[in-house]
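Known limitations

Files may contain more than one protein. Parsers should not assume a single record per file. Below, a two-record file is shown to illustrate correct handling: read the sequence, read the token line, then continue until end of file.
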Amino acid sequence: MDISIENQQSLELYSELLKKDKTTILNEALKEYFENKEEELLANDPTGEGAMTNLSFDEFWDDVEL
């Protein structure tokens, strides 16, 4: 796996600022990335859960009060 120099530098910086190890930061970032992509895929899948609306997850829940 190759990580760009810019991302390596950011990872080092945020690791120091947040007092977190680099593995934790990478795992958190990947988890968020995959959750976002899953929402996008479901929203755009005409046969899946998102088939009932053309709104994104955030657009659908905007202004909803529970």
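...continuing to the second record:
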Amino acid sequence: MATGPGKFDAECTIAREATDAAGAILIVIDGTLGSGFSVQVIDPEIARRMPIILRTVADQIEADMEGI
């Protein structure tokens, strides 16, 4: 979930803390608990930038997939 704990909140916490990150987005596809995502941020400003961040990631994935 974008607000409040998500199905994968514990796993997202592990990733965020292990990397000493200000924020983390964990997307799980067909995991043992199904599919879903969890978002954690320290600063609300990061949350406001997440749509831009995700669009940038999507653009990069599409560019990487061209020609495959």
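Parsers that stop after the first record will miss the second one. For reference, the second record is described as follows. The beta strands are 23-31, 34-41.
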